[in-house]
Write a structure and sequence with these properties.
There is one protein chain. By secondary structure, the protein is an alpha/beta fold. It has 2 domains: 118 residues, Glycine betaine-binding periplasmic protein, domain 2 (D-Maltodextrin-Binding Protein, domain 2), CATH 3.40.190.100; 155 residues, Dipeptide-binding Protein, domain 3, CATH 3.10.105. Helix content is 43%, strand content 20%. It is built from 13 helices and 9 strands. The strands form 3 sheets. Strands 3, 4, 5, 8 and 9 form a 5-stranded antiparallel sheet that branches. A two-stranded parallel ribbon has the order 1-2. Strand 6, helix 11 and strand 7 form a beta-alpha-beta unit. Helix 8 crosses helix 9. The longest helix is centred in the N-terminal third of the chain and has 19 residues. The two termini are 41 Å apart. The structure holds 1,1-dimethyl-prolinium.
Length: 298
């Protein structure tokens, strides 16, 4: 008889506790039956810069997944998103971010992409090199390098981790170029040295693109170019190369992420093809969260 009473008491206590634990007070979430991921993260997906393709894709996901009807995407910046992720991760709190790889965050934290049964974020992406029309005639050496520039996600990640750990982008790029002479010599094969010719690369302050622009910039500099790295938002990056205000960009995520920009500017650009394969975008959460699919966001 007594045993049974204790049992009921414990059961009731458990019920009360689980009903109270939904407001971020540091208890172990995810396993509590009375809470939902949505409540815990305030129905919020932490986004990045408004012009990013991943923001457009996420707006689409909010429309197409019924379970996301009450969720919102918060505009932010790549740096602020990563800082929020780090903060939540250190406290083992739930968080949902717009994420992509390659990225240093996968080297530093144990994270996972949420499955995307509706395929909103597409499959694998390539990062492609676009140059202004006429560059081949005007700057054949730079064109040759840009055309031959190709590396692996792991290469890019090395540069990104270095920058995240505190190196200046230029310093990290220089170090990487010096340590990878063989690969770099494939990019520069057949490219003649120049003396002080000007070349400009447009990029966005996404971690991936900070790494690639600085590495390619360094290689062109070593060839004798005076390199100008121009940091812009996504739309203006495409526009500047299309209009010939910048010479090149190595930051077009295709076929999906930047499809709209390609529709708008593709005809006015020359596409030199992928410089990296196996990139990906999607919704990313810490591995300790007890969900696996976008459909689990409720
Ligand atoms: N990104 C990184 C970009 C492309 C590179 C995934 C944040 C975007 O979503 O447009």
């Amino acid at each position: 008889m007594k045993k049974r009473f204790v049992f009921l008491f414990v059961l009731a206590l458990g019920f009360v506790l689980s009903a109270c634990s939904g407001n971020g007070n540091g208890t172990d979430k995810g396993s509590d039956e009375g809470t939902s991921v949505g409540k815990e993260v305030k129905y919020k997906i932490v986004g990045i810069e408004p012009g990013a393709g991943i923001m457009q894709a996420t707006e689409k996901a909010l429309k197409e997944y019924d379970n996301l009807a009450d969720w919102k995407l918060v505009e932010s910046s790549s740096t602020a998103m990563a800082a929020e992720l780090q903060k939540a991760y250190e406290k083992k709190e739930p968080i949902v971010v717009t994420g992509w790889s390659p990225h240093w965050k996968f080297a530093k934290f144990d994270l996972k992409y949420l499955e995307d049964p509706k395929g909103i974020y597409g499959e694998e992406e390539s990062i492609e090199t676009l140059v202004r029309k006429g560059l081949k005639e005007d700057q054949p050496s730079a064109y040759t390098v840009l055309d031959q520039f190709h590396w692996e996600p792991s290469n890019m990640e090395e540069v990104m981790v270095e920058i995240h750990d505190g190196a200046e982008p230029k310093e990290a790029a220089t170090k990487w170029v010096e340590a990878n002479k063989d690969l770099v010599s494939e990019w520069t094969k057949g490219a003649e040295e120049v003396s002080g010719e000007k070349i400009s690369l447009a990029y966005v302050a996404w971690d991936t693109e900070i790494a690639s622009a600085n590495v390619v910039g360094k290689v062109l500099e070593d060839l004798g170019y005076e390199v100008d790295l121009i940091q812009l938002d996504a739309g203006p990056m495409f526009a500047s190369v299309a209009e010939g205000d910048a010479d090149a960009m190595v930051a077009a995520w295709l076929p999906l992420t930047h499809a709209d920009y390609m529709d708008q500017y593709g005809d006015k650009l020359e596409n030199l093809g992928p410089n990296l394969e196996g990139a990906k975008t999607g919704l990313v959460v810490p591995a300790y969260m007890d969900i696996n699919s976008i459909e689990d966001l409720k």
